[in-house]
Amino acid sequence: MFPATPYSEASVFVRQMRRLEQDVLRMGALVENSCRLSHQALFEHNLVAAEAIAPLDKQIDQFYRRIELDCIQLITLQAPVAQDTRLLGAYMQLIRDLERIGDYAKNLADIAIKLFPHPPHPCMAQIEVMSLQTQTMLATSLVALVDLDAEVGRRIKQMDCAVDAGYAAVYDILAQTPLVCTNPSSAPSSHQTLEPFILLALAIRHLERMADHATNIGQRVAFIVTGQRG
Amino acid sequence: MLTPLVAFISGLSLGIVIWWSQRLHFHRQLTDVLNALPITAVGNYASLISNLRRGVRLSSQRQFDLESQLQTWQQLIQVAPLGFLLVDSENQLLACNTYAQHLLHIQNWGFGRPRLMLEVIRSYELDQLIEQTRRSYQPQEQEWLFYPTLADPDAAGRPAALTLHGYTWPLNDGRVAIFLENRQPVIELSRSRDQWMVDLAHELKTPLTSIQLVAEALHSRLDPPLQVWVSRLLQEVTRLITLVQNWLDLSQMSAQPPTPLATQQLDLPALIRAAWQTLEPQARQKHIALAYVGPETLVTSGDEMRLYRAFLNLLDNALKYSPPEASIEVHITPTATDVHISVIDHGPGFPETDLPHVFERFYRGQTNDPMPLSRSNGSGLGLAIVEQIILAHRGMIRASNHPKTGGAWLQITLPGHLLPTPNPQTTPP
Fold first, then answer.
1. Segment B230-251, tens digit of pLDDT
2. Which domain holds residue A107?
3. Which of B11, B97, B266, B300 lies 20 to 30 angstroms, CA to CA, from B159?
4. Beta carbons of B149 and A143 less than 8 Å apart
């Protein structure tokens, strides 16, 4: 339970790197929270969750700016070598990915608010699976970053294929919906608008982009470890 | 002849002096060492060396005892039925007991380099709790939902969230100790209890309605002496049906996710007057009047049916606990951001010890009625329903005793964004 005493004599640079890593992980945890909230807003009709995302997004942006600045300072002042340089460079790139994922989560929450009055579409179950897969990818990419595990980083790319397949499937369902409602039971009084379909198309697009950014993070981890682009 | 002897003697004496001063110096150093020992061995030993030997032996014994004590404590923490974490000033995880590892799904703990808390447990809430503890240097506690990272990323299922309750304790050097309690079993138990009650209420409703219908049929066919018994039966059955219906309503309103409100524009004072009119017959029996202070009309938006229900329950309660010929006061004060509504009666008020519990299900105030359960038709759900309705409108409700009347004082705050922007096209109902 009580492992070796921590290295208190660690150099200033090592400490700064640890602090930076901690901030990146904090930002990652926040983005994960955003994704969970957007999921609750979309699939559990939880509007309180939808409203809770905006302040989170603001915090994520603050982390983004601070980490970027810290990275630049470390690179210029400490002149790191080899893996540390790659780590710092990768951090600067992957916080951009994280920030984008956070933005998409916020957009999904906005979609959830607009989608709220419309009856749920049958393909929501498929979209929910996509959302869960995306969240798993994000979590896995953060684990890969913590463990600096190039293998896990590469595996995320395979998981991305599942999300892409889900995107294609739901897109087909939406695209094949006839424009004129031939169902005689729907009287002209029931307002049949295109809005829910547009919103759903946007939602799957956002999820697909989130998954792509998570894939990027995984690949950057592989780059940190091996120095080669996958 | 004498010169070598003198030289020898003076050399010897010089040697003796040097030896003596060195011995003195050594003695002083030994005494210092002896004093520096944590245990001063005040023995009767003549020799300083024996004293020192004893001191060293005692202190190594003491050290051994302390070490074994420390080991015992560490073992106890290790097996404690509560999660324990310890982080240093740089948020590196120093300790993590078996329960915490199991609770937070921590694998391969304790190998390699010391790791950051966030590397092992990716929880922003826990991180913030630790920061807060360190900044305030005060123990903190908080409850949050923890989503463990899936061990197998291919199984894209819903990750089971855990409700954790964390208690932190600040230590010196910026270290923070954290105790984690798993609240999930309690939450699940209360959820299953609620579900059980809803199922039971559903099962009860149908036979009760049948009994009511049969009793009504009987009532019209019986003659006076027997009819009284059946009307008593009818009264009780109606009370049971109301209770069951209230329970079902309450469960529906507090369900997750909540059922959306049917929001529309409404006149708040008119709504309260309508609720009062429903209660007018009972009020007239006790000669109780409604004293309203506030604007004549105040158009806001809200769910009319539910707000009506809330005010009906509040006024009904006030009526029930008011002495005859008293008045019930209702105040409406609109501010720039909120609407404040107060309902005050002249009854005995809430007992001080009950105040934190008045919105709990099946809470029932003290009445002068000797048989409150059979006579008063309250279900003990009235205020719980009111609270759920106000919360659904994102408002707040507070119960206290009014300093002047001594009766119950219920203060409601409905948020201002319920106030609609002036819109000439819609007319208030």
1. 888 998 998 889 888 888 888 8
2. 12-181+188-226
3. B97
4. yes
